[in-house]
Amino acid sequence: MTDTSLHFEADFANQGRGAGTGTSDPGAGAGGGSNFDVGQFAMGTSAITATAGAVISAISAFYGAKVLKERLKQEASAFEFQKTMATMNRQLGEERASAEMRAAQQAKEQLGLQAGQETSAIRARTAGRGISLGVGSAAEVEASRRVIAAIDKRTIDRNAVRAANAARRGAVSEGMRARMLGASAANARASADSINPFVAGGAAALSGASRAGLGWHEYARYYG
């Protein structure tokens, strides 16, 4: 067996004893061998890794909470904007319903004026021909005009009521949507306000520090 082989076996034995007892044989270094302790290196590396992990975890938790807080604020702002638009749509729907009824009233008034003018014209032409008003065909023509005018007014009313009801239904729907969006905005805003990045980072740091502290405690126990 060569001198190199003897030194290798001595080093391996010293490493085994150092891992079990935390000490190395001083005589092993006298021949020029290494005093490297695998167990000490592994335990120290583990403690350092745990410490670095605690720092990284704290930083990640801090920025993660910060990003989440900002995202919730943006969601709240988006909900509030949609609520504003829905409220405007509700108001527009109510205005459209009122406008439909006003337009119907104006249309009926215009129809009444037109029917009155036509009736007057018919009477004037009939009187000019020497035909008695309110008798025979003249009376039938006038009655027909009144019936047609009444039918036209009812048609205008039906169409106006239908359009106004549709506008009111849309307004009610938009009002309900505005209330729901308002509640969503309030919830998102409350969630954002409840998040504190410093608290989140501190909690992660404490959790990581406890693990790192345990690793350093074990290291000090065997090699301190």
General description of the model:
With 224 residues, the protein is mainly alpha-helical. The protein has 4 helices and no strands. The longest helix has 91 residues, at 38-128. The protein is rod-shaped and about 140 Å long. The two termini are 37 Å apart.
The major pleated sheet works out as: none
Number of domains: 1
Residue windows where pLDDT falls under 50 for at least 5 positions: 1-33
| β-sheet strand percentage | under 5%
- Quaternary assembly: single chain
User: What is the arithmetic mean of pLDDT?
Assistant: 75
Order of helices and strands: HHHH
Shape: rod-shaped
In total, how many beta strands? 0
The share of residues in helices is over 70%
Instruction: Report the span from N to C terminus.
Output: 37 Å
Helix tally equals 4
What is the CA-atom radius of gyration, in angstroms?
47 Å
Structural class: mainly alpha
Helix and strand arrangement:
Layout: H1 3-21, H2 38-128, H3 136-194, H4 197-223
Helix pairs in contact: 2-3, 2-4
Q: What is the compact description of this entry?
A:
The protein has 224 residues and is mainly alpha-helical.
Offer a few descriptive terms:
4 helices, mainly alpha
